[in-house]
User: Fold these one by one.
Assistant:
Number 1:
Amino acid sequence: MFNHFLCQQKKGDITMFRKVLSSSKRQNITLGILYMKPVLWMPVFCILLGILVIAQAKEPKLILSVEEINELIPQIEAAEERPFLNLKVESERWTETKTDLSDPCEQWQRTPIYVSCTAWFGGGPEGKARIDVHKQVLRWRDGAAPYGESSYSVGFDGQQGRVVRYTRGHGGKTFSLKEGELLPDAPELLRGSYLDSCTGAYFTFCFFFNADEYRTFSKLFRASKTPAALEVNAFECALEEFQGIQCIKFGSGEQLWGHETWWLDPSRGLALLGYEKVSTRNGRDRLSSRIEVNELKEVADGVWWPTQVTSVMAPFEPGEPYRRFVYRASKVVANDPNFDESIFTIPFPDGYLIDDKVTGRKYTVGEEPNAPEN
């Protein structure tokens, strides 16, 4: 009866999005209501729901002053510097869908979309890196076999980038590609948010903006205290509780296009705990994405890496479902004294056709005596 009643509820987009993603505190209340007589629990539920909505809209928060922001900036800059000497992550990410986010009776459904990978990082977002994608399953077309499967590696050794494509296929059948590329810089895929979300890097303080030289947390915090920004309330900086932890809440403020908000944990090296992006269209706010870092591991002194994260994306088009990306790291090792830097130079196996973007040559490894790999 109670579940049936909940199934009939329809809430506003942005309020319900946040409630569904952070509902643990309200579950204890609803369990108590279950044992009430039907005549009693209906009005009590409505009253409690109203109180919760009001309380959520009026969460206490302490606005930080310009002086307090100035004190924070050196800590932020220190956290943005090379966070570790080396780091290895073994992880996976899969996708789930849900049609109606406001319906508590509808469960998230796992899809075939999946990635498993091993990543190595040699420092910050612009440093050496390598990601071996052991299995990637993505939707590529409609029909009897709508999902394609592939495996590949991308890397940057500090001088050149490399891409090696091993296999590709669909419908349960795969074939060898035996292709590679040599690039004058890091592959775009290596620096993008897609693979970073598969390795966990995207959910960290240092890697959130990738290698964007124009956007870092220190630059955003510095910009927030300029007279021009203060005059129009371009940013919000406050202390606020997130997941039961007192965080630094930093937001871009209300803009014509919407706004972004980050929650950083000062007790764990300014680790990212949450992110929210709200889009504004025709004067109406719409929560387009929300990230919650559910578990962090201290992999080195002062270095925290996410090991469990959920990220929900609103539909791009009407009729499409909500998507939830679930990230899990099974192993994270930082500052290994026996780490071998040569891991960042991905080898081109014999028989692979290499497209050398540096010299403009194309060659097959093992067949041309003067090829770089021979």
Note: Residues 1-13, 22-60 have pLDDT under 50 and may be disordered.
Number 2:
Amino acid sequence: MYVTESMSTPTRARLDVATNGTPGAAAVELFAQSKPFGAYRPPVATPHFVDFAARAVGSGATTRQIVFRHAGSDVFPITTVALRGAQSSDFTLASDCANRTLAEGGSCTLTVAFAPTASGPRSAEIQLISPFYSEFGLLVMGDGVAAGSTSPTTVIEYYHKGFDHYFVSSLDADIDALDSGRLAGWTRTGLTFKAYPGPVAGADSICRLYIPPAFGDSHFYGRSATECDQTRTKFPQFVFESPAVMYLFVPVNGVCAAGTVPVYRAFSNRGDANHRYTISRAVRDEMVARGWIAEGDGPDLVVMCAPL
């Protein structure tokens, strides 16, 4: 009996086996039911691929999270999660997906870490293996760069009185547009801090997201790839401008390492969302007194650490 996709309801038949020409000597009951193809679709990955920002060789790992959600109408078993590829040793996995069956709408989470062992493009494929699919692959990639003595650059703060918004940047194109008046209304506050323009050992990439006018007409700087992914998932309306506009250090329990200073982040807590980034605790406290919310780790609420 052939099973076709159209046989979505149970189908039964009887097979009579004749022995030496005598009918009815044996009978076998046959039963079959197909599942719609969509029932066994592979899980949907968010994000669909992972592109790590450039990272210095030997600087340790940075991580990203991937959520696999089963959108089919039946269960989807996953037996194995693995990495493959010539450069797969530059990536490591931590996952609750293996040896698990996802129900309809169910999900599991995978954390992939990237620690380049050599300079240049690095990539691998994450495989989800299931009895229903021989394999389901997702690309992860990043660039390794030689750790060097990259000199810090200056991050300049600007203020727009009409918007009551703050903005920081170390990028020449931004600074030129603001200082020249092509983007009208912005003036320097006189406050700055340092950051690295490229990967250095121990530093994390700082991403930049644009918050559209309907939600604030502002920018948000994520202090790690993980925070960036979480923010993009929570606020899909934000525009992802860059995975690495600068490099800073992440504090440990709110404490910055020797040779660095705390960077504070204050949130306006208004409909026109805005954040202010500063290395001055007094400025941060002044913003809090005005009704802004201090964000960060530890008793001093430190969000990042900048080089001296």
Note: Residues 153-307 form one domain.
Number 3:
Amino acid sequence: MRVGEHRLITLLALSLLWLGCNPTSTPPAEDAAASETPTTPAPLSPPITSECRPVDHVWDPATEPMLLPCEPTTEPCDNIDNDDDGFTDPHCPTRTCTSDSDCTYNGLLPDADCNFHPTIHEGHEPYPPGVCNQIDALPIKADHDLCWGKLCPPALKCVLGECIPPGTGLPNTDCTSGADCPLNAGCIPAEFETGEGDVTTGRCVWFCHEFSCTPDTVCFYRENLNEDTGVMHSSEQCCTPICAGKDCGTDGCGGTCGDCAAEESCNDNGVCAPECTPHCRGKTCGSDQCGGTCGSCDDASACNLETGNCESCPPQCEGMVCGPDACGGSCGTCEPGIPCNNDTGQCSRCTPDCSNKPCGGSNGCGGPCPITCKGTCDPITGECGD
């Protein structure tokens, strides 16, 4: 059968299937009412094409485009196009790469990506970073290598060696296997692990170097440098901007949450605040009046907060083994489980005593007593009044 005849038959079959799933008759009243109920929009997925290549057809690259097979095929990972279909080692780690697009054959194979981490599968020698692989990483230690060398017909995804209809998981939603995610999305652990690890839930990571993201996400280009090999790996993934409670600053996806006015600056919390000029002239320590400091002092000195300068401060630790040294430092620490009596500077097992002290004060062990007075505390006598 010629390729044109096979495409025509395939298109007719799909048309009949569509008509069977979409009747033109008017639905019953209750069904019509139910159809008006708002539903969650279906996620964007790679376009589905009915064009495929019969497995016994010899591809002519001079006159025909590359097409996926009409039935699943498998070839060895040996850097050879064994069936002369234009695909060399699909999903195979024998193909080196520096970006995800190096593995997807211009979108024909969207369920492949470029591994930035080492590729480890039981029964195989580890492959270094920078090789192609099947797009999913969960379940951990599963037989993802069963997709090495395998091509699926159009609109089907290779998951653990089987060609199945892809999932519908939206970007960054939970998944437990590649079957939960679309054709151009991999089920990848949030904290990627290889080897030991009880990682059972990941997220659907959508790759967007050839396909669109959902309306609430953006395509984010990122680069990762492998320090062991010195090779830069690039990837484009759908990213959800995070700007809740922010006026400015990064949105986590390469963009911003907004800009501040000319007289304002963006603080670390992503909020626009009036410009603040640090005041540190003549100061070596203390506040800069903008939330920062003008410096710090060494262990032999303390900051005079009034002048903003470090002044000599001999530690006062005579006869003490723990507690503050009156210069911002410590006279030592106690063994675990033994508290320090800050009043005496000694390590001792002490029972706090706060009886008859409703207005606070020392508990006898170097700590304060809580204020339990429900009236007014006399600042002179420390007694609780009505």
Note: The CA atoms of residues 341 and 366 lie 4 Å apart.
Number 4:
Amino acid sequence: MQIEAVKAAYRRYARIYDTVFGPVLQPGRRALLEALNLKPGDRVLEVGGKPVRTFGEIASALRGRADQPIVFKIERDGKPFDLTITPMRVDGAGEGALIGINSVVMNGARIGAHSLIGANTLIAEGKEIPEGVLVLGSPGKIVRELKQQEKDFLLQIAQGYIDRARFYRENLKPM
């Protein structure tokens, strides 16, 4: 009995982190999938020639690849095919703005300085996010203004990312 419960829990857990696009209910996310020529039920098998098992692995494979075409191997209805996608660089983010993991910022959107875009948030095409706010949801909505202490902390976090990127670029060598 316990083994069946563990198997059932694993199946629920695996489904959450699997690379299959589920039914997309939010109009913005549906439009994004359609723009990428993806459909609910599609499974991402590889990104850039490397196998992926989770959406986190997809995000990792895309890091640092802005404006560079990358080939996705997709399975649809049991048949694999290649799809080339070019991730977009977000140039409209102000100083100290942080964009959470798995968030989508559409073309022409601008993120104000010292703003925080929460994980899994969709910023619609052309949307203007003012300075110093917290934005959550799909589509992204301003939840509240950030306090000065929070803005200062965001700058520290952003500087930490910059410092680590510089360190890794200078010190890590390919294996």
Note: The radius of gyration is 18 Å.
